[in-house]
TrEMBL record:
GO terms for biological process: methylation. It comes from Leucobacter soli. This is O-methyltransferase. Keywords: Methyltransferase, S-adenosyl-L-methionine, Transferase. Pfam families: Methyltransf_3. InterPro entries: Cation-dep_OMT, SAM_O-MeTrfase. Its EC number is 2.1.1.-. GO terms for molecular function: O-methyltransferase activity; S-adenosylmethionine-dependent methyltransferase activity. It comes from the Bacteria.
Length: 210
């Protein structure tokens, strides 16, 4: 194992999670739903804590691992989370309930993000997390830039597409979309981009107040 791999593995194993997060992660893996990794969960929770985010929107609830991380350090925050699979949402409701998250802090929307995002209020969210349907990522980022407030952040776990983005031989559409996105935001005067190697890559785009 190389030094960089050791560092990555150490960072992945470092975060401690609540019992509810551990249970949700186990359930997610049992159901074949890929949750955010431990270090990505920690970075999302840390981002909320650092920025004081109160209004959070997420695409891809899964069974709620990322949702629990987003709400972990922010008792005042509310989470709007969009999920296309009713069974995933049903499991997520149980996960949030067993974790003691009050219903008033949650708006769980069953539907296709492509249909739901245009209905959300403009500039209403401090943080938008996109963790679903990578084929439509570029469109989701465009919508997210509309609903996030100036100074707010869009977070994209899975930014390396299971390592394909960094593999020059990988030419599939999702890897290409992600490379296009990384190039576009890297040059944008309106966005501060940060690419973390946590998990499978975590891209964080802060909408500048220009
Ligand atoms: C990678 S999993 C999300 C994991 C979750 N963020 C977590 O960490 O626990 C992606 C989820 O997005 C959902 N999904 C896929 N396509 C979608 C779409 N078009 N709109 C909304 N949700 C979608 C899937 O059903 C799946 O539950």
């Amino acid at each position: 194992m190389s030094r960089l791999e050791r560092n990555w593995q150490y960072a992945e194993q470092y975060p401690t999670e609540t019992d509810a997060m551990v249970r949700a992660r186990r359930l997610s893996l049992e159901l074949g739903i890929e949750p955010v990794s431990r270090s990505v969960a920690a970075q999302l929770g840390g981002l909320v804590a650092a920025t004081g985010a109160r209004t959070i929107c997420e695409i891809g609830t899964g069974v709620g691992v990322s949702g629990l991380a987003l709400l972990r350090y922010a008792p005042e925050a509310t989470l709007t989370s969009i999920e296309i699979e009713s069974e995933h949402l049903r499991q997520a409701r149980t996960v949030f309930s067993e974790a003691g998250v009050a219903n008033a802090r949650l708006r769980l929307i069953e539907g296709d993000a492509g249909q739901v995002l245009p209905r959300l209020n403009l500039e209403a969210y401090d943080l938008v997390v996109i963790d679903a349907d990578p084929e439509h990522l570029l469109s989701y980022v465009e919508h997210a830039l509309q609903i996030v407030r100036p100074g707010g952040t869009i977070a994209v776990p899975g930014a390396f597409a299971h390592g394909r983005v960094t593999d020059p031989a990988a030419r599939d559409i999702i890897a290409q979309h992600l490379r296009d996105l990384l190039t576009t935001v890297g040059d944008s005067p309106a966005i501060a981009p940060v690419l973390s190697p946590a998990g499978d890559g975590l891209l964080m785009l802060t909408r500048l107040q220009v």
